[in-house]
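Protocol step 4 of 6.
Sequence for Nif3-like dinuclear metal center hexameric protein (Mucilaginibacter calamicampi) entered exactly as in the expression construct, tag removed. Do not edit the line below.
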Amino acid sequence: MKITTYYTAPTPATSATFTVQDVIKLALSENETVRAQTVDKLRSGSPEQQVTGIVTTMFPTIEVINKTIAAGANMIIAHETPFFNNNDETEWLKDDDVYKFKRDLLEKNKIAIWRFHDHWHGHRPDGIIYGCLLKMGWEKFYKNEDRQLLTLPQPEKLSSIVARLKKALDIPSIRLVGNMDAQITTVFFCLGFTGIGNISKLKPDLVINGETRETENTEQIRDGLSIGEKTNLLTLSHSVSEEPGMVYCAQWIAPKVPGLKVTSIPSGTPFQYL
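Step 5 output, structure tokens:
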């Protein structure tokens, strides 16, 4: 995903201004519960600073930060960590040149980074899953009560789903454990970096995930197929599987901040495919 997409809600008759804290409150306003323990915290910048523009992204990479500056924005809503560990701990990085460069870049340009991870997954619909389904044209199959489990109205060949995913997410390859000729009706979505869940209980025709520990459910699925089980696995990689959810985040939040330009800047896959 190499494009940059812009969303701007109409400017109201009376000009409004938004602080970083205002934007955070708006982003959390549709969640039934605001968690006390969460990674969704401000990782740089000040809650009181006035927002000049918003960027949504998966990973707030140095490249994304530079594009944010060029776009005239000063707030990044990022799904994942800027500092290479889920809790954004920085003590272990205090002598790291990459961390110091990134921190200095953020401070010099007064860029606020706010993590929107737990509450975006907790939103109804789950913002990450729904964004991916929008790209695939499967959003009508989403049910809040099932969240990760979809039932297609009629079977679709696995090879067709692979082609759909590659086109929708603009990715060159997908890892498969299974049979490309399999007919798929039930699909379990567990995007990003996650465990796959209770395969033995759900027995879906297909699991679509970002990445997982290959000693665990990946091997369970492989062994299952060898004894006649029907569950297949498509692994997309972490970043590309969740990035559409942050594109959707830009579309979703823009009407809440009229007059501010909201820019979706995908961080993209870190990998080259050889």
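Step 6, annotate. The first helix runs from residue 20 to 28.
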